[in-house]
Write a structure and sequence with these properties.
Blueprint lengths: L5 E3 L6 H14 L20 E8 L11 E3 L2 E5 L4 E6 L5 E6 L9 E2 L3 E5 L4 E6 L2 E7 L9 E3 L2 E5 L5 E5 L5 E5 L6 E3 L5 E4 L2 E6 L2 E5 L6 E6 L8 H4 L3 E8 L2 E6 L3 E6 L4 E7 L7 E2 L3 E5 L5 E5 L5 E5 L11 E3 L2 E5 L4 E6 L5 E6 L5 E8 L2 E6 L3 E7 L1
Antiparallel strand pairs: 1-15, 2-34, 3-4, 4-5, 5-6, 7-8, 8-9, 9-10, 11-12, 12-13, 13-14, 16-17, 17-18, 18-19, 20-21, 21-22, 22-23, 24-25, 25-26, 26-27, 28-29, 29-30, 30-31, 32-33, 33-34
């Protein structure tokens, strides 16, 4: 069963809830843990997967440091402070940098400026592989910074959002929303949609003016319920799915839903127990629930198009849809391809035997996965 750390916001009395959940998680990893579903052989010649290139970046430890693609560059970071830019078509190294500290969040880039955050809560921005500036932050960061419009946006674990000038490092604004004292130590939602910065703040999706930091709209995707703070935790988890003006996200262990992000209109919300992000392609929204059941929802109304239970309890990553396939990685380092139309297995390919972390990312017509051991693998399918 998947486990997820919780983070208390200041008061020591909140620690007991986090420790209790950690103890329960430790129990779930014992002999009573559900066994992974045995792998089936995909249909013969359904899809042919080609390995394009592989690289290594170093130890990722426990962090799902998802890479980001900008044009023909793939930029990624490792938990021990390495930042690397690769050519997407060949895997050729373009530049490599050392931040000098362990990282707490993934990487953001616009192709010129690249941002990461250290475990000491320091925002570090690189320019052409060299450190341009640093800024100390007051709250812990687990969500990758967003670099867009000559700004660096940071979403903190206390649900605050901050904006910095990408060139100078000057702080432009901060936006703080009230929230529950217990927070999820897992990457959240932060992305641009036209002229709006969209961020998850608790169970709500919020549209923020990127120039001023004012809230334009906010829409709840879930209504937290429960008898204690742990049960009521419903923060939105990343990555979010986006197609055009529609953003789809998952509320931790509560719901999945889609919002029209120009005006802030809830399109639909469906109950779903899960903790990994979504992918949207305009027709369907793909997600993995807490038992590793893969589901495709119709993006228009949230009705279920298909569900696959062939990979239950295999520790699946968030999904990616590419070509005719939905791509997910698992805890044993396998990458699985399912039919985009009906969820039937199409192909399976191995990486390095360690868990696929984060979500696969699209790089042109190929996709890239990163493993716990620091392997970077690019594939395509025909």
């Amino acid at each position: 069963m998947k486990t997820h750390p919780l983070m208390p916001a200041g008061a020591l009395r909140r620690l007991s809830a986090a420790w209790l959940l950690a103890a329960l998680a430790a129990c779930s990893s014992g002999p009573d843990k559900p066994k992974p579903t045995p792998l089936e052989s995909p249909a013969p010649s359904a899809v042919r997967v080609q390995s394009l290139w592989s690289q290594r970046i170093g130890g990722l430890q426990q962090l799902p440091l998802r890479p980001v693609v900008n044009g023909d560059q793939l930029v990624l970071a490792s938990g021990d402070g390495k930042v690397l830019a690769l050519q997407t078509d060949s895997g050729k190294e373009l530049w490599r940098a050392e931040v000098g500290a362990e990282l707490s969040a993934g990487v953001g880039t616009d192709g010129r400026h690249t941002a990461v955050v250290t475990r000491a809560n320091e925002l570090v921005v690189l320019r052409n592989g060299e450190v341009a500036w640093r800024y100390p932050l007051k709250a812990r960061i687990v969500t990758a910074p967003l670099v867009a419009g000559e700004r660096v946006f940071v979403y903190a674990a206390d649900r605050s959002v901050h904006a910095f000038d990408a060139a100078s490092g000057a702080k432009l604004w901060s936006q703080q929303r009230p929230g529950d004292p217990l927070m999820l130590a897992q990457p959240g939602v932060l992305l641009p949609v036209r002229d709006t910065l969209v961020a998850g703040q608790g169970p709500r999706l919020a549209g923020i003016d990127p120039l001023r930091g004012s809230v334009r709209w906010e829409v709840p995707l879930a209504s937290p319920r429960g008898t204690n703070e742990v049960e009521r935790l419903a923060d939105l988890v990343g990555p979010a799915g986006r197609e055009g003006n529609v953003v789809c996200a998952r509320s931790f262990q509560s719901a999945v839903g889609c919002v029209e992000a120009q005006g802030g209109t809830l399109l639909w919300s469906k109950a779903s127990s899960g903790s990994t992000g979504l992918y949207a392609d305009g027709q369907r929204v793909y997600g993995v629930d807490s038992t590793d059941r893969v589901t495709a929802y119709r993006q228009a109304d949230g009705d279920v198009a298909w569900t696959s239970e062939r990979f239950r309890f295999r520790g699946l990553s968030a999904p990616l849809a590419v070509g005719r396939s939905v791509v997910v990685g698992d805890a044993e380092g396998y990458v699985h391809l399912l039919s985009r139309e009906d969820g039937q297995p199409q192909a399976r390919v191995a990486t390095d035997g360690s868990a696929v972390v984060g979500a696969p990312v699209l790089a042109g017509s190929a996709w890239v996965v990163v493993t716990r051991a620091g392997g970077v693998f690019a594939f395509s399918a025909q």
